[in-house]
Amino acid sequence: MSRTSSNFSRWKAASLKLVEAALAQALVRRSLEQPPEIVSLFEAMGYALLGGGKRLRPLLALAAAEAVGGRPREALPAALAVEMIHAYSLIHDDLPAMDDDDMRRGRPTCHKVYGEGPAILAGDALLTLAFEVLAEGLGRDPETARRRGLAALHLAQSAGGLGMVGGQARDLAFERQGEAVDGAMVRDMESRKTGEMMSAALVCGAILAGGGPTAQRTMRDIGLNLGLAFQIQDDLLNLEGDPAVLGKAVGSDAERGKAGFPAVLGVAAARAELAALTEKALAGAASFKTPGLRLTELIGSLVNRQH
User: Fold this and answer.
1) CA 252 to chain centroid
2) Angle, CA 109 vertex, CA 106 and CA 110 arms, to 5°
């Protein structure tokens, strides 16, 4: 292992430890001395939020803070918020009315353990908790309030009807439409569904660490390119991956007639697009020079993953 990769591994381990502890604490301190029904709700939230996962969005937020010359810990509220929204989206994605998945990360999905109603509520509560976490500390000083307010606005836009949820709406609508769905439509869908939250992690992390408008625009471009690259890799793994490694079934996209990149563009074209998008994302990260080293290494690890 090279010195660079060794340093990245240590940075990643320390960052994950910080994020995991903060996520758990955010749930624990709110569920203390609550009625049994509320405690059960928080248990369902914790099952989805704390049950593993790559934590790539929190890592992007922390790396973005470092890239703009700030301290990673400054971006922690953004890191927690984007992961809470990601967890809520997965709970709802797995429901019978959506992707109808029984397994997530190698274990039963939230609605299989707690029931559909409680799972929906757990997702709702995680979504709102994300903005509560971002809003905490607004009264500390004017600059903190400005940064957190701006981050909350950006995150809401990225997660809402014009962003992630809008992408999910297009995803549902495109199922089994076959040739009626073209490459431009898939790119738009995936930019909303996956790219927007990747960019939100980067932009919000940069905002909380003092990154200005130019840095924010660069982070948004990186996130959109990375999001598309990540989704193409995800689509390819769903088509060709190992279920034992992925922790979920493969081939489900094809069975549902989902309009992913390989289905619409073909596998070869999807791989070419993956390479081009990865190059763009890495070039954006490199523009931050030495402070962007962690971000560059993180992008490389995400697009080369096998699970």
Assistant:
1) 21
2) 135
Pair 223, 201: CB distance under 8 Å: yes
Residue 101, classed as helix, strand or coil, is: coil
Q: Could you tell me the CATH number of the domain that includes residue 71?
A: 1.10.600.10
| 83 Cβ contact list (under 8 Å, min separation 6) | 19, 23, 49, 53, 55, 57, 58
Our count of domains for the chain comes to 1
Q: Which two tokens stand for residue 148?
A: 């957190």
The whole domain housing 216 covers 3-303
> What's this model's pTM, rounded to 2 decimal places?
0.92
DSSP H or E stretch at residue 160: none
Q: List, as own/partner pairs, every contact residues 127-133 make where C-beta atoms lie below 8 angstroms and the sequence separation is at least 24, other chains included.
A: 127/84, 127/85, 127/88, 127/159, 129/26, 129/30, 129/45, 129/84, 130/80, 130/81, 130/82, 130/84, 130/85, 130/88, 130/155, 131/81, 131/155, 131/156, 133/26, 133/77, 133/80, 133/81, 133/84
Q: What is the pLDDT of residues 201-233, one digit of tens each?
A: 999 999 999 999 999 999 999 999 999 999 999
Tokens 């409680």 correspond to what residue? Answer: 118
